[in-house]
C-alpha cells in the first residue's frame, strides 16, 4: 500500500504539487492524468524520492519513505520511462540484470530471472539476450525497459509516459503485455499519462490532477458517470463517455444465453471492440467463446447499447 499524506512540492514561489493525499491499494494499477504542468510526474517521482517533497509524508506498507536511504528505495521500486532508458553499450540480458547485480544476487538467480522476463514478454532469451538496444525495434526496447524495471521483483512499479513514443499498434500490444505482467506478479503500478484512452484501459483507479491538486480520484466507471468537476468532464470528453464505458468491460461480462452466426469474439475482447465488430459485420449478434474456444453465449447490439447508456 502507498499512502500519500498532504504532500506538497514547491520550487521557490511555484507550487507544483499542492497538499495531495491519496491511498493506492496494493496489486492495483493507478493512473495519474492531467494536462502538461499539472504536477503528475512530480507527484509520482516523490514516491521513490527522485524528487524530495517540501512537506507531507509518503508511506510504503506503513514505512515512511524518508526513513529508507534513497539508493535503497530506488532499487526496491521499479521505474520505467518513455524511451526506455536502456544502457546502449550493454546487452539486453545485461540491462535486465542491472539491479539484481547491484543487489548481489547469485549469477544463476540473475540468469533465471532474465530468461523468465524475456519469455514473459515473448522475446526468446537465446535470440534477444545477447543483442544490444540499437538492434531492437521500438516496441522491443520498451518491453526490455519494463523487464529491467521488474527484474529485482519490486512490489511497486512507477511508469512515466512509458508508451508515449510507440506507434498505435505496438502501443496497444505493450499495454496488453503490461496488464498480463501485472496480473502475473501482482505488482502495484503507478503510471503517468496524458492519454485518457490509455488511462481508462489500464486503470483500476484514475487520479486527475489540475494545477497541482487531485480534483478526482475514482474508479474509471465512477469517474465517467459522476465527473467531479467541469475540468474532469472536459478531460474525459463528453462525446467519448459511452465508448469509454464500453472499453472498460469485456465481452465475457456482456455475454448472454443464446447462439449467433458469424466470427466468434473472445471473452477478453472489450465491449467497445465488440460493438465495432457488430457494426462492421452488419449483424445484430455475434457468438462469444472462452480462451479454450468453448461457446459462452452471444453478445448483441441491443445489450451493448444498454451498457453504453448512462446509468440511472
Automatic annotation (TrEMBL):
Key words, A-Z: ATP-binding, Nucleotide-binding, Transport
Domain of life: Bacteria
InterPro entries in the cross-refs: AAA+_ATPase (IPR003593), ABC_transporter-like_ATP-bd (IPR003439), ABC_transporter-like_CS (IPR017871), P-loop_NTPase (IPR027417)
The UniProt record lists the keyword Cell cycle: no
Molecular function (Gene Ontology), one example: ATP binding
Segment forming the signal sequence: none
Protein name, as recorded: ABC transporter ATP-binding protein
Annotated organism of origin: Shinella curvata
Amino acid at each position: 500500500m502507498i499512502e500519500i499524506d498532504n504532500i506538497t512540492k514547491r520550487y521557490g514561489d511555484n507550487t507544483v504539487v499542492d497538499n495531495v493525499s491519496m491511498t493506492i491499494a496494493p496489486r492495483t494499477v493507478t493512473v495519474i492524468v492531467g494536462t502538461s504542468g499539472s504536477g503528475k510526474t512530480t507527484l509520482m517521482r516523490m514516491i521513490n524520492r527522485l524528487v524530495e517533497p517540501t512537506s507531507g509524508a509518503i508511506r510504503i506498507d506503513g514505512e515512511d519513505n524518508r526513513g529508507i536511504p534513497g539508493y535503497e528505495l530506488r532499487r526496491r521500486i521499479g521505474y520505467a520511462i518513455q524511451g526506455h532508458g536502456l544502457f546502449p553499450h550493454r546487452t539486453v540480458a545485461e540491462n535486465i540484470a542491472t539491479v539484481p547485480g547491484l543487489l548481489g544476487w547469485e549469477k544463476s538467480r540473475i540468469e533465471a530471472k532474465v530468461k523468465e522476463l524475456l519469455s514473459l514478454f515473448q522475446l526468446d532469451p537465446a535470440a534477444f539476450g545477447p543483442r544490444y538496444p540499437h538492434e531492437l525495434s521500438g516496441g522491443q526496447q520498451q518491453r526490455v525497459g519494463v523487464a529491467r524495471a521488474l527484474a529485482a521483483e519490486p512490489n511497486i512499479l512507477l511508469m512515466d509516459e512509458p508508451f508515449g513514443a510507440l506507434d498505435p499498434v505496438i502501443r496497444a500490444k505493450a499495454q496488453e503485455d503490461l496488464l498480463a505482467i501485472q496480473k502475473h506478479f501482482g505488482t502495484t503500478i503507478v503510471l503517468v499519462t496524458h492519454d485518457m484512452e490509455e488511462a481508462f484501459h489500464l486503470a483500476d483507479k484514475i487520479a486527475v490532477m489540475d494545477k497541482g491538486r487531485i480534483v478526482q480520484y475514482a474508479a474509471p466507471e465512477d469517474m465517467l458517470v459522476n465527473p467531479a468537476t467541469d475540468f474532469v468532464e472536459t478531460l474525459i470528453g463528453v462525446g467519448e463517455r459511452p465508448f469509454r464505458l464500453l472499453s472498460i468491460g469485456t465481452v465475457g461480462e456482456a455475454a448472454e444465453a443464446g447462439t449467433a452466426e458469424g466470427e466468434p469474439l473472445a471473452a477478453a475482447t472489450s465491449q467497445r471492440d465488440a460493438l465495432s465488430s457488430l457494426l462492421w459485420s452488419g449483424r445484430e449478434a455475434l457468438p462469444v467463446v472462452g480462451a479454450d474456444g468453448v461457446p459462452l453465449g452471444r453478445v448483441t447490439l441491443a445489450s451493448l447499447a444498454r451498457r453504453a447508456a448512462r446509468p440511472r
